[in-house]
Amino acid sequence: MLNTLTSPFFLAGVAIVGATIFVSCRSGAGHRQPVHLGMQTVSQGPSSGISDETCVAIRSQEELDALWRRHGNLQLPPPQAPAVDFESSIVVGVFLGSRPSAGYAVEIRGVDHVKSAGEGSPATLVVRAVESVPMEGAIVAQVTTAPFHLVMIDGVDGEPALDLNR
Fold first, then answer.
1. How high is the pLDDT of residue 122?
2. Residue 104 main-chain phi, psi, to 5 deg
3. Are residues 9 and 43 located together in one domain of the fold?
4. Which domain holds residue 60?
5. Are 158 and 123 in contact (CB under 8 A)?
6. What are phi and psi of 64, to 5 degrees?
7. What pTM did the predictor assign?
8. CA-CA-CA-CA torsion for 130, 134, 135, 140, nearest 10 degrees?
9. How far is Cα 89 from Cα 115, in angstroms, rounded to an integer?
10. Residues of the chain with pLDDT under 50
């Protein structure tokens, strides 16, 4: 009597199903390829009034004005928010939060729009950024900084997700 689990037909079926799953996973079935978005710097610098590390997507002038009040609260007179055409664009920003000295910086290197594979699931804006730190032993101003970078991209849906390379 042949055991069902060791039957050649059963084993062949398991191999076919396994190969199908492997090929589906390797080909990205069910996953969407990211769309690399063009971007233009709106503002970048070493000093923001936003002292927590955060990544934002801003979709209206009102949102930008509110963020700008927090961002520019250390400057007198406070700077005015730039005008952005939110009919066709959004602003994405990275704020590193407080750093102990000068010499820190952040640069957004790219923004990818990734649509979810599931019906009705939200898209993601993967914000790829790089943090620069002072070299060990470098002489830098002993002043607290809060580096930031804001860019304008095409108006797309999705919540921001920070991919920060330190």
1. 85
2. -95, 150
3. no
4. 35-165
5. yes
6. -65, -40
7. 0.79
8. 170
9. 18
10. 1-2, 10-11, 14-15, 17-30
